[in-house]
Amino acid sequence: MSTDNARTGETTTVADAPWVGPAFLIGLPLAGAALGWGLTFIVEWIVGLRWFPFQGLFELFTDLSDTLRIVVALAAGLLLGIVLALFALHEMLTITVGRDRIALKRGDYHRDLDRADVSGVFVQDKRIVVLGHRRQELANVEFDLDRDRLAAALRAHGYGWLPGGDPYAAEFKRWVPGADGLPQGANAVLKARQHALEKSNGGDLAELLDELAALGVVVHDKDKKQYWRLADPA
Predict the structure, then answer these.
(1) Following CA atoms 136, 179, 125, 94 in sequence, which dihedral angle do they give, to the nearest 10 degrees?
(2) Membrane spanning segments where (predicted)?
(3) CA separation, residue 53 to residues 38, 46, 56, 59, 141 (Å)
(4) d(CA 50, CA 53)
(5) Of 67, 134, 204, 223, which sits 20 to 30 A from 99 (CA to CA)?
(6) Do 117 and 128 sit in the same domain of this protein?
(7) What digits encode the pLDDT tens for the residues 6-56?
(8) What is the spatial distance between Cα 121 and Cα 150, in angstroms, rounded to a whole number?
(9) Is there a domain that residue 14 lies in?
C-alpha cells in the first residue's frame, strides 16, 4: 500500500498516502452497490441451489418486485461497502515519530512510547516491533507501510533502526505445556492463551500477552503455535 511521510514541526508521521482513505470511502461503497446490483441477476439461480446458505432470505428477495429488488440490492450493497470502508480506515496504521516519543496506532491498538525506553525498531514477518532496553517488546503490530520511509523517519529522529530484523529471533522456542525455563505462573498463562489462539479470540490474546510481558516473557504466534523467549530482568 502507498505510504506517505508527513512532517509537522518536530514529528514525522508515517502512514498511508492521503488518497487511500478517500479511495476506500468512495470505492468500497460503489463496489458494494455494484455487487448488489449484480445479485439481482443471479438470485433466481441461487435459490435453486438448495445447499446455498440463507435460502430463506434469498427467497424473500425473489418475492419482491423487480424495481424493489434493485433498490434493496443497491442499498444493501452500498451499506455493506460503507461498513467495510469505515473498518478499513479504522485499521490503517499510523506511526508518529518525534524527538522524544514514538506513537503507533492501528484500530484499537495504541502505544505511546518514550524515546528513552526504546532501544531499537525493526520490521519482520509484516509486523513492526519496538524493543526496550531489557530486550522486551514495547510494541508489536501488523505493518503494511513502506519500510524505507519508516527507516528514514526513525533515523531522522535518532532512533535505532534494525535493518536485519529481530536480533533475538534465534532465542525463540516453541511452547509446550510445562515448558522449563519460564517464570512462575507463565505456563498457566500460555496454556490459557493457547486456547484463545485456537479460538481466534483477539481480546483474550492481547490481554494474556500483556500478562506475559509483565512476567518478562516475549511471545510470537505462528500457525496457531506460540514461541517464547525471556526478556532481561528489571
Answers:
(1) -40
(2) 23-47, 67-89
(3) 18, 9, 9, 11, 35
(4) 8
(5) 134
(6) yes
(7) 665 689 999 999 999 999 999 999 999 999 999 999 988 988 888 988 888
(8) 10
(9) no
Query: Could you give the 3-state DSSP secondary structure of residue 3?
Result: strand
Write out the three cell numbers for 119.
532501544
End-of-domain residue from the set 66, 90, 114:
90
DSSP assignment letter at 54: -
Say if residue 73 is in the same domain as residue 41: yes
Q: Cα dihedral sign for 65, 71, 72, 77?
A: positive
Number of domains, the chain = 3
Total H helices, total E strands in the chain:
6, 11
129: helix, strand or coil? strand
Starting at the edge strand found earlier in the chain, the sheet holding 127-132 runs 118-124, 127-132, 137-142
What is the residue range of 115's domain? 93-156
State the amino acid at position 57 in one-letter form.
L
Kindly state the cell numbers that stand for 30.
460503489
